Each structure stands twice: as C-alpha cells, then as structure tokens.
Amino acid sequence: MRKKIIIANWKMNKTLGEGLQLVEEITKELNTQTQSDVLKIIAPSFIHLASLADKLKLNGFEIAAQNCHHISKGAYTGEVSAEMVASTGAKYVIIGHSERRMYFGESNDLLAQKVNSALSNNLTPVFCIGENLTERNANKHLEAVTKQLKEGLFHLSPTDFGKLIIAYEPVWAIGTGVTATVHQAQGMHNHIRSEINKKYGKDISSTIPILYGGSCNPKNAKELFACIDVDGGLIGGASLNAPDFVAIVNSIGN
Ligand code: PGA
C-alpha cells in the first residue's frame, strides 16, 4: 500500500506573516483524525523554511524547499544548498518544477545533479516531470516524460531511486485552470510506473509515490486521487487558501 501524499507548493507567494496565518487556518480546518494517514507537506519560500518548520511539525506537517543548488557550497551569490535546506528541518525538496525548467533553463543534466545533492543531504527529492502542450498535441507526451525520467533520474542506484517522490505535472495544466482528465492522468502515471518497472523492477515501481499536479482543486481532486496509480497531489494555486487546501487533503481516500 503506497503512502498518500499532498504537497502545497506556495511558489513565490506569502510573506512570513501571511504564511504563519495560513498554517494556522489550515490546521484549524483540518480534521487530523480522519486524515492521519495522509502525509502533508508544505513548501514555502526558502526564507520562511526555518521560521515555519517548528510550527508545521507541531501540527503534523512536513516541510519542503521548492528548489536547491546542485553544488554543496561556495561562491554562488543568492543560492541555497541542499545542506542549508536540511539544516532548517526540511526533509523534502521539489526539484525540476516546470517553472524552474522554463524560466531558469534547468536541464535534465543539472536536475540530475540537484537530485544527487539532495539525496546526499538526506533530503527526499520530489522530482517533477511533465510534457508541454506542443508535445501533448503531437502525441509525443509519453516520450517527453520518459526522456525526463531517464536523463534526470535513471542514473540513481535502486536504493536511492526508491527514496524519491515523483510528481507528474503536465505543463499545460499548471496554473491554467485546465486539468488533465482522469484518463490522461492515469494513463501517464501508469506509463511512468511501467518505465520505472523496466529499469528498476516491480518492487520499486509498485511502491514509489507518483503525485499529480496541475490545476488540482476541490472539485476535481477526488476523481484524480481515485485513479489507481495516482498517490496524491502537488498543489499550487489551491494551496494558497485554507478551505480549498483542506478540501483537497480531505478528498483523498474519502
Ligand atoms: P497549480 O500548480 O496547482 O497552480 O496548477 C501546480 C504546481 O505547479 O505544482
């Protein structure tokens, strides 16, 4: 039985005060008893990690960074290493989000190095993959995602690969209000699992969590999470207000 996971990706939103308030509102609204088996992770900005870590842990949340640098330390002004992230109490780090790939030119090769750096600092990478609209329309979505998997992750040993969380986020669904259909999401999650099976075998492919992300909201979450190969969600816009985020958390397994 795979773990159910919901991750809030706040992106470049929320001041410290707003973040603290949102955590308070989410905690108040969340029925922790019925959802104790859902792993809930919040990814605020780097600068709020340390300030939010204690509060989040007390309330049953884990904390994630949204990125990290691929080198362990040095003269890289403005950058944040995996070791620094880990020192705040964060256990997870999102790597390869499409906004990082798109706006900051992060390649699969660079992302592979980030994954290595995260793992060597005992952080769990939440590795994002997903095709863009051109690839989807050209019916090249399966091969686009396979390439990201192979180039970003398939250098890992089975032991390290087994520590990952994967997030399938079709680029055309992120922040657009257009969600993948259940058929599209399940089809891709199944494809990802079968590629992992070919490389690492069934023990790993059947236990690795694969989350869906892309305009997930309280209306569509339940049917997406009901897909056999979807183990939860990576939530952007709808994680920025407590009622929507809590409704999404509560839609898993209910
Ligand atoms: P969205 O973002 O829910 O706002 O589409 C998801 C993500 O980018 O992780």
Short note summarizing the structure:
The chain has 254 residues and is of the alpha/beta class.
Description of the structure:
- The protein has 254 residues and is of the alpha/beta class.
- The protein has one domain (5-250): Aldolase class I (TIM Barrel, Alpha-Beta Barrel).
- Helices cover 43% and strands 15% of the residues.
- It contains twelve helices and eight strands.
- The protein has an eight-stranded parallel beta barrel with strand order 1-2-3-4-5-6-7-8, surrounded by five helices.
- Helix 1 links the parallel strand 1 (4-9) and strand 2.
- Helix 1 (16-29) crosses helix 12, helix 5 crosses helix 7 (141-153) and helix 7 packs across helix 9 (182-200).
- The chain is globular.
- The model has no long low-confidence stretch (mean pLDDT 95).
- The chain binds 2-phosphoglycolic acid (PGA).
- The site of 2-phosphoglycolic acid has 13 residues, from strand 8.
Helix/strand order: EHEHEHEHHEHHHEHHEHEH
Question: Which strands sit side by side, in order, in the main sheet?
Answer: 1-2-3-4-5-6-7-8
Question: What would the principal axes of the Cα set say about the shape?
Answer: globular
The largest sheet, given as strand count, sense and whether it forms a barrel, is: 8 strands, parallel, barrel
Question: Over the alpha carbons, how many angstroms does the gyration radius reach?
Answer: 17 Å
CATH class: Alpha Beta
Give the termini separation.
Answer: 16 Å
| Helix and strand composition category | alpha/beta
Helix content: 40-55%
Unique bound compounds: 2-phosphoglycolic acid
Give the low-pLDDT segments.
none
- Look at the structure and give the mean pLDDT: 95
Q: Can you tell me the number of structural domains? A: 1
CATH topology: TIM Barrel
The DSSP helix count reads 12
Strand content: 5-15%
CATH architecture: Alpha-Beta Barrel
State the fourth-level CATH superfamily.
Aldolase class I
How many distinct beta strands? 8
